[in-house]
Amino acid sequence: MEVHAQLRDPLTTLYALVFGLLALGYASSNAVELVSNRGSVPRTASWALMLAFGGLTAFGQVITTMIATTAMLRDEAQRTRSMIATTGLSPRIWFVGRVLAALSIMSTVYAAMPVGLVLGTALAGGSVAQAVLESLRAYLFITVPTMFVVTAVLAVAGALTQRVLGVLATALLLVGVWQVALALVANPSTATAGALLDPFGNAPVLAATAAWTVEQRANNQVPFTGLLLYNRLTWLGIALGAVGLLLYGATARLFAPRVEQVMVVGEQHRADTPFRDTSVLMSLRRFTAQWMQRDGGWRIVSSLAVLNALANALLRPLHIGEPTVAALMLVSEHARLFLILLATVYAGELVWRERDVRVDQLVDALPISRRDLVVGRVQGLLTGQLQIVLPVALGALLVAVLRTGSLHAPQLMAWGAWSVFVLWLPFAQLTVLSLTVHVLLDHKVAAHLLLITGWVMAVVINTRGATPWWVRFADAGPLATAAGDGVFWGILLQRGAYWSAVSAALLLLCWWRWPSGGRTSPAITSR
């Protein structure tokens, strides 16, 4: 049933098309590059394809998360979990069936990678036979084990938490572990630990071939032995262990009812705060901020963002340039993915949470103006974001001091500018953009998919450096090497003011198009 349901979903076909086109573009042109520092190594070499398929599978974490979440939380989204529990179906059979369905779908989606690579090689006039052989090796040794591990771990997280954000937090944790592993493998003294720690398989390939020459990378096959084999066995053991612990220790939670926290638009007046501002606007702002700060998913993802950004900034080598700015940019680089996902998910929650719990018509009946409803919630969302912005900013200052061994006034000036114009302001602007997309599309799945696709396209555009800054949303611009440089402040103030004005216009659009009147989208699903 689950396989048929997912195959009928057009998004499944879209997922496979995305992987196929990425692989085809990588094999046929220079428009898509999946292996950093590949140099003159052929695209279809064993070394290059192992890394390319590992990177594609890591990129596919978003799609794997969506498919696993849909499989595990479909009954919760459709309010049929309690009904299924009364049928006498074994929780273990239910869980195993849903996991096998997710794995079947993922196998179909990821199979587009070798197909796209072979087609791209044929279009480019390369060796099709070599492309078939090496893409199948990479698919079997890298993609299939990773697919099983990630799907199993995310399925366990979904079954235990019964929440989308629980699965999302687990997926981000795996991405954070992957990034830390890549940082560890770059240092010879920690390469073995990094190779075993990587759930996607890039780090063991890099560790095993660290001493290879360009000629060896171009002609030799990466052996499925040593660190690569140990890495695959380690993560397969972790996935099987997680599934075993769930099936034999926590099956009662699979059909346990979940208590929903309903997001309402008011706040009870407490007797111990008689002089507190109780206006509608302030109540909405205060409640939204407190709801976010108390939400378990927000706390988990925020903690992962802080730890991942600071750990990578401490472990990775500094880029060329002024050391303090280089350290700060490392922090923002490794926090960016988490901030984008938080902006995407929680901006959507402002629109969808009340409809998810079927209280939207009750809220529409309350005597609250649309302006207060939109402005109060956005203010609360931006206030709640300080819970992640402040720790990242303070941690970045500590990292900069530790990496440079000093603290002077120019460093503090650079840190202050970075905190406002590179960390907080783009986070707020991306949140407003995400909210606008959700409001205009009025379709939860379509909005999330459009935003995720947009972020991927933005990364590609950014790496190519072909797009002017005034069409790159929430682009804070490069930091100057000297904090006293006039261009430094001019660029940051100019771009900050420009994109803040764009965000203000988008807020007006949200106010004008805010859904009301009990209008409910047909796509309110856990996906």
From TrEMBL:
<feature type="transmembrane region" description="Helical">
    <location>
        <begin position="414"/>
        <end position="433"/>
    </location>
</feature>
<feature type="transmembrane region" description="Helical">
    <location>
        <begin position="380"/>
        <end position="402"/>
    </location>
</feature>
<feature type="transmembrane region" description="Helical">
    <location>
        <begin position="49"/>
        <end position="73"/>
    </location>
</feature>
<feature type="transmembrane region" description="Helical">
    <location>
        <begin position="496"/>
        <end position="514"/>
    </location>
</feature>
<feature type="transmembrane region" description="Helical">
    <location>
        <begin position="335"/>
        <end position="352"/>
    </location>
</feature>
<feature type="transmembrane region" description="Helical">
    <location>
        <begin position="233"/>
        <end position="256"/>
    </location>
</feature>
<keyword id="KW-0472">Membrane</keyword>
<keyword id="KW-0812">Transmembrane</keyword>
<protein>
    <submittedName>
        <fullName>Uncharacterized protein</fullName>
    </submittedName>
</protein>
<feature type="transmembrane region" description="Helical">
    <location>
        <begin position="138"/>
        <end position="157"/>
    </location>
</feature>
<feature type="transmembrane region" description="Helical">
    <location>
        <begin position="12"/>
        <end position="29"/>
    </location>
</feature>
<feature type="transmembrane region" description="Helical">
    <location>
        <begin position="164"/>
        <end position="186"/>
    </location>
</feature>
<feature type="transmembrane region" description="Helical">
    <location>
        <begin position="445"/>
        <end position="463"/>
    </location>
</feature>
<keyword id="KW-1133">Transmembrane helix</keyword>
<feature type="transmembrane region" description="Helical">
    <location>
        <begin position="93"/>
        <end position="118"/>
    </location>
</feature>
<feature type="transmembrane region" description="Helical">
    <location>
        <begin position="296"/>
        <end position="315"/>
    </location>
</feature>
